[in-house]
TrEMBL record:
Assigned keywords, A-Z: Transferase
PANTHER family reported in the protein's UniProt record: SUCCINATE--HYDROXYMETHYLGLUTARATE COA-TRANSFERASE
Domain of life: Bacteria
InterPro entries for this protein: CoA-transferase_III_domain (IPR050483), CoA-Trfase_fam_III (IPR003673), CoA-Trfase_III_dom3_sf (IPR044855), CoA-Trfase_III_dom_1_sf (IPR023606)
Molecular function in Gene Ontology: CoA-transferase activity
UniProt keyword Membrane present: no
Protein name: Crotonobetainyl-CoA:carnitine CoA-transferase CaiB
Keyword Transferase annotated: yes
Amino acid sequence: MTDATEHNSGMPKALGHIRVLDLSRVLAGPWCSQNLADLGADVIKIERPGCGDDTRAWGPPYARDAAGVDTSEAAYYLAANRGKRSVTVDIASAEGQALLRELVRHCDVVLENYKVGQLKRYGLDYDSLKAIKPDLVYCSVTGFGQDGPYAHRAGYDFLIQGMGGLMSVTGERDDLPGGGPQKVGVALTDLMTGMYATIAVMAALTHRDRTGSGQYIDMALLDVQVAMLANVGSNYLNSGKPPKRWGNAHPNIVPYQTFACSDGYIIVATGNDGQYQKFVEAGGRPELAGDPRFATNPLRVQHRDTLVPLLAAMVLTRSRDHWIAELEAVGVPCGPINDVGEVYQDPQVLARGLVVELPHPSAGTVKLVRNPMRLSATPALADLAPPLLGQHTEEVLGQLLGHSATDVAALRAKGVL
């Protein structure tokens, strides 16, 4: 256990005793470390001098200052880096490597997403660092893992969505207009890898606290993508038949899809026969409930190509708001398809306070999405905006390692910082 300090809010922190040395960049690793920071860990983000995390340049859009002028902080970077302290270090230099080894002595966790074997050249791999700190938890995030024939390949979310089967079940049916593979609109595999890495790190810390032993965590995007196929993967393993794309429909439930209304779209998700009956009765088509072809979900799945056009014609006669009000009144799950602007105006989103505004050194304030983990005693709280590049270099090296301002200035003059 280290002497990690709690954040400034004064609230109790689940991970207030944990310090993380974050050598990761882009999304999967930073998503993990942002979770840890939200839960109270002191996350020290190591960045390249001069340019920093790749996502700092992934704009526009950028955060804007009070005058509406773009800052240098890309919105993409802001999404995954709140709650951290930024320190610039050139890890290719011997002095930079020495600094990181000093920092490891004060940290509980190292998180990195370099190519397999790359950090070994710098003496920053797990075997080298556990010699310095035997109870270290060290998490590596790569595209394909530390072994296997693809281990040395670079892995990107889009690529893994394709290789890992997600795109084979995402997109419109091949026999319909617009059919074909489609990626998910956010980097879902990166995000899920960050979530799995968060769980793995906390499990390893619990093990360390019980036994005194650290360990190595090997997280791979491809492994995560295969695992998160969930019921789709299970369907294949138990049938031998590769699942196909269903667009906005469901392979096992009918009706469970989008429908066009007179002025927009809704989702109708009937999870049982009773909900289906209430749906068609609300639409003035009770005979569709009594039709023996559609009496049960297995029969509706069997006859979907006959039933769905009938339902589509029924829904098209009325407005979106009318359908939502009617179906909510009789307990049929339904809802609108919101664009992102509508999401942030949704009454439930507003009531849950999912947007948080934090003070920022160059933008004045930045708006971020609140962490969805709700803990009653140790809440996940965002109290530090994503840092400017190198914002905390002097603070961390001085307070944590005892380096003087003169020492830091000399390292900066050499290009180490």
